[in-house]
């Protein structure tokens, strides 16, 4: 891919979460190792994330938002049409103009629930190949490669009739886009006994419903002073001060804001409390037993499949899980090291940390 130009079309926000941008940055990093140059096209409302893209060594260009937020309708743009401040047609026009200004590109990578085959067709150019990253399988794609890194029931058939016949399908956690530090930390693992002396609480980069506080309260109710607790919150989390106050009531708790060593924290932990999304595969890579809830409908399929494989203790939708229920689940694992160890072993077998290299090779 030496000297290839890659365009990424992705956004991030509290509602969308950071997972889409995180996995695109991971892929861009892998492609850069092969000599590719990447530029991220993002909506204006994601301007605060531009610095993150640039810190990772990539160019970024913002697509201007309209003065009034006028998203497409569900009928026209799908269930996530409101994730755009304009219609998919308007976004395609702006993306096309930006691409024309950047010059010929070799790949267009799109990771956005509000965009589908119509948008991809409108943005296609001669010689341009398209990689679509998805995990919903709720719409058609006109792409050359489809990446769905999730473990979901009926994975091999759920994109049937939604992709071109010649489309290459990269399906399952074998292709999970994880940063290189997860593979590095995996190689440092010396085995897990199942005994729980350190717990990691992390619900991703946004946590809009403050599930972190619920988890901290559950740990406080267990009142086990010997257990160390690492609580990770995103830089934009509006609840950080109240979370810090809650953590002050735990004898061995530490709050990590915007932690850039999450892989190391996962390796050091014996149990994780969190949600779905990209973090599911990060935990698996490090064989970390987990008590999880879903905080969005698109997390249900993967968390259900993980539970089916015995790779996570899935309690259901976050809104329906009480502090008491969460505490009981944590306590049960603390009392049963064999079960905790089995959860970690099943998770460890699912993700080997080499997914980014496999996806990069498929684009070669």
UniProtKB/TrEMBL annotation:
Fetch the Gene3D superfamilies from UniProt. 3.40.50.11190, Glycogen Phosphorylase B
The molecular function terms in GO held by this entry are:
hexosyltransferase activity; hydrolase activity
**Cross-referenced Pfam families, in alphabetical order?**
Glyco_tran_28_C
Q: What keywords were assigned to this record?
A: Hydrolase
**InterPro entries the UniProt entry points to:** Glyco_trans_28_C, PseG
Q: Which PANTHER family match?
A: GLYCOSYLTRANSFERASE, UDP-N-ACETYLGLUCOSAMINE--N-ACETYLMURAMYL-(PENTAPEPTIDE) PYROPHOSPHORYL-UNDECAPRENOL N-ACETYLGLUCOSAMINE TRANSFERASE 1
The protein's name: UDP-2,4-diacetamido-2,4, 6-trideoxy-beta-L-altropyranose hydrolase
**Organism in which the protein naturally occurs:** Bradyrhizobium commune
């Amino acid at each position: 891919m030496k000297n290839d130009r890659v365009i990424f079309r992705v956004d991030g926000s509290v509602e969308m979460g950071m997972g889409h941008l995180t996995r695109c940055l991971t892929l861009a990093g892998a492609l850069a190792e092969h000599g590719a140059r990447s530029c991220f096209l993002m909506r204006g409302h994601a301007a605060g994330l531009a610095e993150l893209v640039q810190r990772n060594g990539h160019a970024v260009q913002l697509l201007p938002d309209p003065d009034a937020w006028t998203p497409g309708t569900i009928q026209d743009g799908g269930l996530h049409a409101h994730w755009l401040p304009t219609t998919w047609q308007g976004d395609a026009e702006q993306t096309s103009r930006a691409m024309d200004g950047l010059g010929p590109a070799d790949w267009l990578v799109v990771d956005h629930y509000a965009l589908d085959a119509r948008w991809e067709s409108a943005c296609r150019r001669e010689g341009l190949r398209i990689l679509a990253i998805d995990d919903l399988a709720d719409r058609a794609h006109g792409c050359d490669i489809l990446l769905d890194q999730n473990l979901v029931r009926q994975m091999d058939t759920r994109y049937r009739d939604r992709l071109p016949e010649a489309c290459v399908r990269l399906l399952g956690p074998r292709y999970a886009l994880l940063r290189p530090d997860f593979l590095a930390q995996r190689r440092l693992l010396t085995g897990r006994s199942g005994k729980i002396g350190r717990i990691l609480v992390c619900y991703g980069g946004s946590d809009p419903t403050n599930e972190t506080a619920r988890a901290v309260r559950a740990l406080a109710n267990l009142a086990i002073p010997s257990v160390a607790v690492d609580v990770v919150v995103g830089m934009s989390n509006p609840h950080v001060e109240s979370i810090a106050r809650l953590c002050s009531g735990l004898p061995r708790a530490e709050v990590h804001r915007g932690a850039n060593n999450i892989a190391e924290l996962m390796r050091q932990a014996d149990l994780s409390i969190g949600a779905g999304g990209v973090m599911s595969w990060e935990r698996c890579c490090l064989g970390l037993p987990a008590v999880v809830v879903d905080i969005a409908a698109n997390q249900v399929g993967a968390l259900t499949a993980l539970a089916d494989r015995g790779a996570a203790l899935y309690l259901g939708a976050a809104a329906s899980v009480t502090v008491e229920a969460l505490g009981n689940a944590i306590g049960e694992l603390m009392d049963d090291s064999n079960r905790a160890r089995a959860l970690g072993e099943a998770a460890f077998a699912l993700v080997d940390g080499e997914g980014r290299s496999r996806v990069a090779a498929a684009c070669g």
